[in-house]
From TrEMBL:
Pfam families the record matches: Fung_rhodopsin (PF20684)
Residue ranges of every copy of the Rhodopsin domain listed in the record: 42-188
Lipid bilayer topology: Multi-pass membrane protein
Keyword terms of this UniProt record: Membrane, Transmembrane, Transmembrane helix
Annotated signal peptide: none
Protein name: Rhodopsin domain-containing protein
Major location (coarse): membrane
Organism: Cylindrodendrum hubeiense
CC terms in the record's Gene Ontology section: membrane
Transmembrane segments: 25-45, 51-69, 76-98, 110-135, 147-172
Cell compartments where the protein resides: Membrane
Length: 189
């Protein structure tokens, strides 16, 4: 008798909260593990992504500086480098400080994300176009200049992805279900 009473379910009047969160695919994750993963992504993933992007851009710009002695070009390159480092620091600090806890807080987070994504597109465009300064004074055939330009424009894909991410972030800002809509932006980080 004692064994059967311990296996009985509680009455229907007191429903038990489920410790599991389900998704449309049918996979389940414990709520505590999900919270830990979300915290790790917020405190490690996003800042590391932003730092990595800034370091890659800075290294490309420093690589460009090795080829040019023209003072104007060097000043423009250092200017772009300053913008890359500054927006990288601001983006990392903002993602660590700001959190989406209310509608007003989420609006503030999205304003920071949209601003940083726009600056990201601008710096990608500058990094993509800076090598053309190198091609202008070269005394080689036009076909060879076009070939060199195509090699140097290999980063054009990254520029396209940056534009796509900016558009997606603007769309996500106007969506009702931010969690679902944010997935399209995260895929292209």
């Amino acid at each position: 008798m004692a064994v059967t009473t311990s296996l009985q379910t509680p009455p229907a009047a007191t429903p038990q909260p489920s410790p599991v969160i389900g998704d449309p695919v049918g996979l389940t994750v414990l709520a505590t593990i999900f919270a830990i993963l979300q915290s790790i992504a917020n405190w490690a993933g996003v800042p590391l992504y932003n730092l990595t992007t800034s370091f890659i851009k800075a290294s490309v710009l420093m690589f460009y500086l090795r080829f040019f002695v023209d003072m104007t070009y060097r000043m423009v390159t250092y200017g772009v480098l300053f913008v890359v480092v500054a927006y990288g620091i601001v983006n990392v600090a903002a993602t660590m400080v700001l959190s989406c806890t209310s509608k007003a807080a989420c609006d503030q987070v999205f304003r920071v994300y949209i601003t940083c994504a726009a600056i990201n597109v601008a710096t990608d465009a500058a990094i993509l176009l800076l090598p053309f300064w190198l091609l202008r004074p070269m005394k080689v055939a036009f076909a060879r200049k076009v070939g060199i330009a195509l090699i140097l424009m290999g980063g054009g894909f990254v520029f396209g992805v940056s534009i796509y991410r900016l558009v997606i972030i603007i769309i996500v800002d106007s969506e009702e279900d931010v969690t679902y809509a944010w997935g399209d932006s995260v895929k292209w980080r």
